[in-house]
Amino acid sequence: MKSASAGLLLVLFSSMQLAAQADTGPAPSLFTWRDAVLAGAFMGGALALRPLDQRYADKLQDSSTQDSRRLHKISQFVRTTTAPGGYIIGASMYAVGRLTRNDRLATLGFRGTEALVIGEAVGGVIKGTVGRQRPYVHPRDPQKFALFRGFLGGDQYRSFPSGHSLAAFAVAATVTGEVANWYPDSKWIVGPVLYTGAALTGISRMFDNRHWATDVIVGAGLGTFAGLKVVRYHAAHPQNKVDRFFLNASIVPAGTDGHALRWSIMPAPPLDMRGR
Prior knowledge:
By secondary structure, this protein is mainly α. The protein has helices at about 1-20, 35-50, 55-60, 65, 70-80, 85-100, 105-130, 150, 165-180, 185-205, 215-235, 240-245; strands spanning about 250-255, 260-265, 270-275.
């Protein structure tokens, strides 16, 4: 079993290294040959781990593992930090950045949330369409798929891919990509930290008996792509409508008697809120 665990970690961390090195700057097209290499790494990892889905599930649900209160606390922490924590953190960073006129903080918050929404929207469609049975459903069978069952049969048939893994890797890829565009050398520090946290999120979902190993790998791949594509698109289109609407907004003093704030989102007219 040690070799199997090492295999899962090897797949996750190898893919993380490729993602951390991915080019997120402006490019002639949204997709490049590097994306094919990254996709191949995730898909190859998923195929390699597919025969081990059952073994991982059995090992992580063994009483010797589940009796650890520390592991349960760690799992709960990383799970809630990812969702709903990812949305709360992203929205808070965006709001604070706008209020303090810290453009980079606002950009990180907005980009991360944008990648979350896009990634989870795609993941939700796949979940509903593929209809994979979750590990806690008995009799346990990692090969139980049924077309559109995820839409009709409820959450117990929405295992593939892992939504939490997708969200965690989407944020990791987005933040790493944005920071690397500002400070190129930082990706060797920021990337490993964020992707390690994302990997722990995926493992926690297996520990909680909610996902198979292949759910986690594919979710990680989809999330990584969502984050990288968001960063690359905005780098290549700095004056797109989304950025002009959300990131050109400002809160400024009205400069008149009493206390006043002006919330201005171009191209909408400014709105004055006054109070004495």
